[in-house]
Amino acid sequence: MQEAARIGGSMSLENLGLTRDQERLYRYLLRTPGPADPAAAAGLGLPERLLRAVLAELQALGVVDAGGLPLPPAAAVDLLVRRRVEHTTRELSRIDAAFDVVRDLAEEARRGRPVELVERIEDGLEVNRLVNAMLDRTETMNAKHLPRSPLHEEGWESRYRRLLASGMASRTLVGTAALGLPDQLAYARHWHGLGDLHRVTAEPFSPLLVINRRVAFVRLEPDQTAALMIRQSGIVSMLVDLFERMWARAADLDGLGLSATEALVLRALAEQDKDETAARALSMSVRKYRAHVAELMGRLGAATRFQAALRAKERGWL
To answer: Which CATH number is 119-254 given?
Structure first.
């Protein structure tokens, strides 16, 4: 009776996924050193056949080892908690998928035809609308040739900044050719600092956007707005795997060397006392020169220009 009351109360392991018989046998094995034997069946009031079945279930869960010995309580509870978390995550993923169904139904009602698993969308504005409708998701993977997309509508940047601040995970691969100009590199570093993590790759790729690992948009031509919207799970999984492999091989944005313009600005910063003189020597406006200096200071994590020069020397940039 005491055991039954304890198992039925708040201390029960049933909340972590064990059945009543599984918990009873696990507790018995903790109290009685040695593997389960006929005495265990008698003590628990279980037929030997059922006892063997329950023991096999506990071994499959990893709570009891192959020799029939139980894991220590802390290890067993940790294992069960992790299993429960994984199960809950899968359940939440399935529930989250229901919102994709709602979106598909809404699209069918709007278009008057079924939504295809792989669909060519010619209108760039329609691609943009669909992407924006999905950007309440938890993760994006992006591979693009240029940091700034022609599909971004007005107000997109402030909305994306809010999504990143609220915890949305975002990763972006950028081609090395896209970072040849200081403005583009600064743009990539700006978003990298806001949480849209950037890496740089020299590998050829087609522009790609994957949202929540379930929907992919593939640009058909880099200079065109037409795209394929892909919902077929096998194809999307293949694209996710491709992105992950490229991401693993790509270089960190913070590890890039200086561009030619940045090197000139940094040298002018170290050698010239006045911004006006430095800007004139580089044939650029004072405003542009100061923007470069501010970007370099941020990249170096420097609070002052003197500190920026010191850290640049430490890195071998001067």
So the answer is: 3.30.870.10
